[in-house]
Specification:
This protein has four helices and no strands. It is mainly alpha-helical.
Length: 80
């Protein structure tokens, strides 16, 4: 059901789920809740969780831009 504040829910493609799971350092099963186990403390907390949740409600084209930006930022800072 569409939210008046955030709009309709969006579905992610498999490649987007994989990238998101990698960015959050979790498995795709953990991300979509198919492994049956709930782990405490997985994924981002606080502000990062809020940002990822907000980003997940953006149009797919905007999500792709955020993904590209995060990938570039992380790749650049891994060597720092």
């Amino acid at each position: 059901m569409p939210s008046p504040l955030y709009g309709p829910a969006l579905a992610l493609r498999a490649d987007q789920l994989l990238k998101l799971a990698q960015a959050l350092n979790v498995s795709v099963d953990d991300l979509v809740g198919t492994n049956g186990k709930k782990k405490r403390g997985t994924g981002p907390a606080g502000k990062m969780r809020q940002l990822f949740e907000a980003a997940s409600r953006l149009p797919r084209s905007q999500q792709q831009k955020i993904t590209a930006l995060l990938e570039a930022f992380i790749a650049h800072n891994r060597g720092a």
